[in-house]
Design goal:
alpha+beta; Rossmann fold; four-stranded mixed β-sheet; 7 helices; disordered C terminus
Length: 200
């Protein structure tokens, strides 16, 4: 069976006033079905840029994916049209960002950020999406998920109740918003040292 994800000789660079920074310089690895791969390195070594490159989320300028292949389920993501790449991002691969306060939208409730994904990429109606959002929050250990789906990310924005999410709840909400029944997910996480990125 072919690997779920195969990264081959990936190069990503950034053009700066001081010259070209080669943030990702020829990485290659594979991820099999059901496998978790951790990429370990110091801060600034290119782990997050590598994960963003897989999803083609590098802003150009100043960044640019120079060369390489990213084969996902047999398709080279580097060659897909933008519309097809958006479908892959929404349905097949999710990104779990390092800081939930910057990855969650502060003007939407946590529940809405989960239901939006389910409605757009799973064709769920609003009632079914809301029910599934509560189930997903319960799966990651959120107490009283029915109430938490209406929690705002940061007070006072858009919290339809007075409840606001704690830091850990934001982490878990971001996790579920980015990984609802996807085949793969990439994440960039801080530990004490070193940091690591994870693909599974």
């Amino acid at each position: 069976m072919a690997p779920l994800l195969e990264v081959k000789n990936l190069h990503t660079e950034f053009r700066t006033g001081a010259g070209v920074v080669r943030a990702v310089d020829g990485i290659s690895y594979t991820v099999e079905q059901g496998e978790t791969v951790a990429i370990v390195g110091e801060s600034g070594s290119g782990k997050s840029v590598g994960a963003l490159s897989i999803l083609r989320l590098i802003t150009d300028p100043p960044g640019r994916i120079v060369r390489g292949e990213v084969l996902f389920a047999g398709r080279d993501l580097m060659r897909l049209p933008d519309a097809q790449m958006r479908e892959v991002r929404g349905s097949d691969i999710g990104m779990i960002f390092q800081e939930p306060m910057t990855s969650l939208n502060p003007v939407l409730t946590i529940g809405r950020q989960i239901t939006e994904t389910l409605e757009q990429h799973r064709q769920a109606d609003r009632v079914a999406a809301h029910q599934r959002a509560m189930e997903l929050l319960g799966l990651v250990g959120i107490a009283d998920p029915a109430r938490r789906t209406e929690s705002g990310v940061k007070p006072p924005w858009s919290a339809s109740t007075s409840v606001t999410a704690t830091g850990g709840e934001k982490d878990r909400g971001a996790l579920k918003a980015s990984s609802t029944r996807r085949k793969a997910r990439t994440s960039s996480k801080k530990t004490r040292t070193p940091e690591y990125s994870e693909v599974d």
